[in-house]
Amino acid sequence: AEEAAQLRKSYMGNVSGEDVPLPIGSFEDLVTRFQFDSRLLSNLIESHFTEPTPIQCEGIPMALHGRDVLACAPTGSGKTLAFVLPLLQQVIQSRKNEGLKGLIISPTKELASQIFKECTKLGNKIFLDKKRPLSIALLSKSLSAKLKNKIVSDKKYDIIISTPLRLIDVVKHEALNLSSVKHLIFDEADKLFDQTFVEQADSILASCRDPQLRKTMVSATVPSGLEEIAQSIMLDPVRIIIGHKEA
Ligand code: ADP
Ligand code: MG
């Protein structure tokens, strides 16, 4: 606990919530503390991620403990990996379950495609069983058309990354069922929950019917409205704010 306090001080981390899990000091901690998938760890090393950034030190163990998280850290501080890595581990651990398990929402197509790239790089060559590779998809225009025309089954995917409107459209057409989703992540949540998007975010939340749905909001800024929304839709959330000296 002393070490954790030192670590938090070193990156000006402000963490609040009940029973907050300890941060990790290195990616190796994931192996000793969580039964971390070895293939996932080697993909991490192959991607030249050697040391976790502060938001990763805090965010990864919280997600792996199944906590709802509101995470705020500056642009460029590695927030994507902070939510993608635990999600991949959790999906691998629940490999027996059929259907969509993880859903990542991004306000723009460009950002969704960046998240998709990072996800596929880390999820590369991982098999959920002998014949079934971990399946991650970007909800593109063409995938959306294939789902609507039943050319592909929506049960095929473990993780989907999408913008709000495209997702809502396929759900409305009953081309994608969100009832099996266990992990819902809003990236750039300050944008997703602002006035233009909030109805869409609410509609997505309503379509994810698992009562134990784990929710994560990631953002570079936390407007006061966002904090309130987080408190209202999350269960015992942990809040992580990584300060930066310039701020
Ligand atoms: P944010 O979402 O916080 O703005 P990103 O997740 O897009 O930041 O990450 C910014 C850059 O930092 C990316 O190029 C990413 O690959 C890199 N990065 C993330 N985590 C690490 C790490 N642990 N070690 C080295 N580079 C990292
Ligand atoms: Mg980002």
From TrEMBL:
Full protein name: ATP-dependent RNA helicase ROK1
Portion of the parent chain present: 101 to 347 of 564
Motif (Q motif): 29-57
Annotated compartments: Nucleus, Nucleolus
Domain DEAD-box RNA helicase Q: 29-57
Upper classification of the organism: Eukaryota, Fungi, Dikarya, Ascomycota, Saccharomycotina
Family per similarity comment: Belongs to the DEAD box helicase family. DDX52/ROK1 subfamily.
Domain (Helicase ATP-binding): residue spans on this chain: 60-240
